[in-house]
Amino acid sequence: MIRLIGLWAGLLVVLLVLAACGDGDATTTSEAVQLSGEEAAALEKVALGVIAGGKPLPCSECHTIGKVAFGKIGPDLTNIATRADAAYIRESIMDPQAVIVENCPSGPCIPDAMPTLYAQALTEEEIDALVWYLTGLTGE
User: Fold this and answer.
1) What per-residue confidence (pLDDT) applies to 33?
2) Please, is 45 exposed, middle or buried when counting C-beta atoms within 10 Å of its C-beta (0-12, 13-18, 19+)?
3) In this predicted model, what pLDDT tens digit does every residue of 66-113 receive, in sequence order?
4) 11 Cβ contact list (under 8 Å, min separation 6)
5) CATH 3.30.365.10 at 2-134, yes or no
6) For the chain, what are the domain ranges?
7) pLDDT-based confidence at 132, cuts 50/70/90?
8) What is the pTM of this model?
């Protein structure tokens, strides 16, 4: 239990550093965060759980995310880290209507297409893990 608390305390510090490094510009890339293999595996497991089976709707229903999700409605997130920082990604999860990107796989992105319930439906742990995972996606 103490090790788990230490893991999440460390994650919180990392996320605060990432937020401080970002300039709010959605075109900037987050700096890579170095975690132990065990910490990274734990975060990845949580993030992939949200992507595959999140509430109210899994990310995979709408987004393509590397080799783990193949949605065709929302923007492709495979290389999101090359064009967005952690603050922008978090805002997009918490308030999906804040910024509507122009292009989706089927044409112009539609306002209100992404559910706005994620801020209430996901735990802080799930949101943190998802932001961490997405900030590492460069498409490489």
Assistant:
1) 58
2) exposed
3) 999 999 999 999 999 999 999 999 999 999 999 999 999 989 999 999
4) 35, 39, 43, 128, 132
5) no
6) 2-134
7) very high
8) 0.71
Task: With a cut of 60, say whether residue 15 has pLDDT above it.
Answer: no
Nearest to 85 by CA among 16, 29, 132: 29
Q: How many CA atoms lie within 13 A of 65 on its CB side?
A: 22
With CA atoms as reference, report the closest residue to 130 among 80, 61, 73: 80
CB 51 within 8 A of CB 69: yes
99-108: list long-range contacts, CB under 8 Å, 24+ apart.
Answer: 99/26, 101/75, 103/75, 104/73, 104/74, 104/75, 105/64, 105/72, 105/73, 105/75, 105/76, 106/72, 106/73
Number of other CB atoms surrounding residue 100 within 10 Å: 16
Q: Helices (H), strands (E): how many in the chain?
A: 5, 4
